[in-house]
Write a structure and sequence with these properties.
This protein is an alpha+beta fold. The protein contains 2 helices and 7 strands, in the order H-H-E-E-E-E-E-E-E. The protein is globular. This is MATH domain-containing protein.
Length: 148
């Protein structure tokens, strides 16, 4: 019982934290702190696929609910060579009035905070046949994006 209660409290805390950063204009500004620490944990557990999720955000006040998913040690053919960044369509409160499949261009902009400023910008158009862009039937659809 104690463990279940702790999980519930952690889940509620995460939801409150996520609400502090919610955006309603289709833009996510996700500052990932302690990246070196997170990366060292990945190195220690290199056989385990480690990913982190951004807080949810929306395309508009009555729009699509979305989030980003970052694989710190890469995914698929980028494993152990690059980070992989993906777009995740989530079940949202306005899905009944939205058009599916989701068919809007997705652009990722990774801004390098070092003096070198090696920013990475990439975009993709959804494959409207993919289940990833259909109306979500569970909390989150399968992530799609840029493996490296």
């Amino acid at each position: 019982n104690q463990e279940i209660l702790q999980q519930d409290v952690a889940s509620l805390k995460q939801k409150v934290d996520d609400m502090q950063y919610v955006s309603y204009d289709g833009t996510l500004i996700w500052k990932i702190t302690s990246l070196h620490e997170k990366m060292s944990k990945v190195d220690a557990q290199s056989e385990r696929q480690t990913s982190i999720y951004s807080p949810p955000f929306y395309s508009s006040a009555t729009g699509y609910k979305m989030r980003a998913r970052l694989y710190l040690n890469g995914d698929g053919n980028a494993r152990r060579t690059h980070m992989s960044l993906f777009f995740v369509l989530m079940r949202g409160p306005n899905d009944a009035i939205l058009k599916f499949p989701f068919n809007y261009k997705v652009t990722f902009c990774l801004y390098d905070q070092t003096p070198q400023q090696r920013h990475i910008i990439d975009s993709f158009r959804p494959d409207i046949k993919s289940n990833s862009f259909q109306r979500p039937r569970s909390e989150m659809n399968i992530a799609r994006g840029i493996p490296k």
